[in-house]
Amino acid sequence: MSSHIHQLSLTEVADAIATGKLSSEEVTAAALDRLQAIGPGLNAVQDMDPDAALADARQADKAQARGDRRGPLHGVPLAHKDMFYRAGRVSGCGSKIRADFIPDHTSRALTGLDAAGALDIARLNMVEFALGVTGHNEITGHVRNPWNTEYITGGSSSGSGAAVAARLVYGALGSDTGGSIRFPCCCNGVVGMKPTWSRVSRYGAMPLSKSLDTIGPLTRTVRDNALMFQAIAGQDANDPTSSPLPVPDYLATLSDGVRGLRIGVPENYFYEPVSPEIAALVRASLAVFTDAGAELVTVTLPDDFGDTNFLTSLITATEGAALHQDWLQTRFEDYGQQTGARFMTGLTTPATRYIQARNLRAPMLAAFNEAVFEKADVLHAPVMISAPPSIGESDTAANPGFMNAITAMGHCTRPVNYLGLPALTVPCGFTDGGLPTAFQLIGRPFDEATLFRAGEAYQHDTDWHTKSPN
Amino acid sequence: MSEQEALETWMRRFQGVAPKDAVSDPSRSSGMSDLVQNHLADIPFDSEHAGYVKLLHALAPKELNDE
Fold first, then answer.
1. What is the CATH number of the domain that holds A218?
2. Are the C-beta atoms of residues A140 and A42 closer than 8 Å to each other?
3. Is the pLDDT of residue A3 over 80?
4. Which residues of B touch A445 (CB under 8 A)?
5. Would you tell me which residues 280-339 of chain A have a C-beta closer than 8 angstroms to some C-beta of chain B?
6. What is the structure's pLDDT at A414?
């Protein structure tokens, strides 16, 4: 089994450790080998401490030997986007400005995984301050797609997507303000949960836009994702915006299937700019659901639904600029060129427009709910409008003309952040160029359980999630 | 004074930054400002962002709100 440890899913490796078929030390050593051998070629790893990771693994093994398992992720090595604070450890946020930042507290998402027994063995590269959708980073270098290293990983959770797809670790945390979990999942062929706004505490996670920021796992399978998500969801006194609603047992309903589930298929907006190749791959996934007993329902989105895309950008730019204003004034030269310019744009937003953009969320959510969720239980949609571009063609420092295309990339993702809804990204095939693509399932607020159930049903009847890059 | 010069002056005076060529095109913000303008009638007079949070929870699965 040891030669194939890296091919196991998170669920499988957790079971193997729990039953004594593998030790945490064996699994962690295998992950460290791959992080060191493959990680640099992908530029996925920001930093790691192999000796500390192995020491933690041995501690986990000793604890299990004395009957002291911490939780369902006991001894499983994970690594996370370099924006989740751990007290006493650098959290660089993909930046020069925070390259030496050592927080004095640990993020709630990490303490949740710690409590479940997981190991945290590396910091993964990311887009500078999480502001960008392609995975480019002028400061720490561009992360490369393991399916073809000339192509983008998507961002901003670029290292998380690449590391999970390349079988370097079994799961990774990311964040999603406008698509930053969903893009890397789509480009790299892995599963990602962008949760309902406020479902996961943002305490100790680098902020970009608090009105929109969400935290979720990237994993190889839907079941793995539910397992990780269970450990991080829930109210937290340190994040007053976190929801008090109870957290359901996501694994309890995971295998209930989709018979009778009403899946909404949008007849307007989502597919309008999507390339024929991507549209065909995404639409083909619908047949899997109908074969499993789901019902397809055509839904018509409100005429002004597309405005939510731009309202997301307005809020992100404005809140980001407010957070970064001191550094924009004093350390502008330390930002990557595109990052500083984009934050600067938010300084021009009139305060009244920002307040109005936030106050529009309730009527926009009500209209969307009436149009979609009075007819369907989930909405099925593309994630990206085209196949992932190459790193070269989408580098706006060298090719400024590509900026419009990058802005258009958020067409299918940003509206979901504006409304605050959960969305599960699930791989559904490969382009002619051999790169993955995916669909997203968008759910009612706090109904991540239905998304996991539908995603699990899809993966039960397909094998896209079993394919890995060479 | 050109629109660009006016913007740069405003940025220096009220935001404390000298944009150089960094904010060469404020159209993104101004375009989005126009977009919000078109929605003003959709925003109830007595609205606040907390109303959105309340609605988000009200639309959650019934079993979560019942617990």
1. 3.90.1300.10
2. no
3. no
4. 56-57, 59-60
5. 304, 307, 310-311, 313-314, 317, 325, 328-329, 332
6. 97
pLDDT at position A399 over 80: no
Question: What's the pLDDT tens digit per position in A252-265?
Answer: 999 999 999 999 99
Q: Is A148 helix (H, G, I), strand (E, B) or coil?
A: strand
If one counts the domains in chain A, the total is: 1
Q: C-alpha distances in angstroms, B53 versus A9, A271, A304, A445? A: 36, 29, 21, 10
Q: What is the DSSP annotation of A322-360?
A: HHHHHHHHH-GGGS-HHHHHHHHHGGGS-HHHHHHHHHT
Domain annotation covers residue A58 = no
CB A258 within 8 A of CB A454: yes
Domain that holds residue A386: 76-466
A28, part of any domain: no
**Where would I find the beta strands (DSSP E) of A184-339?**
191-194, 214-219, 262-266, 295-299
User: Hey, what are A373's tokens?
Assistant: 């969720």
Residue A337 has pLDDT above 90, yes or no: no
Residues of chain A with Cβ-Cβ distance to B9 below 8 Å are none
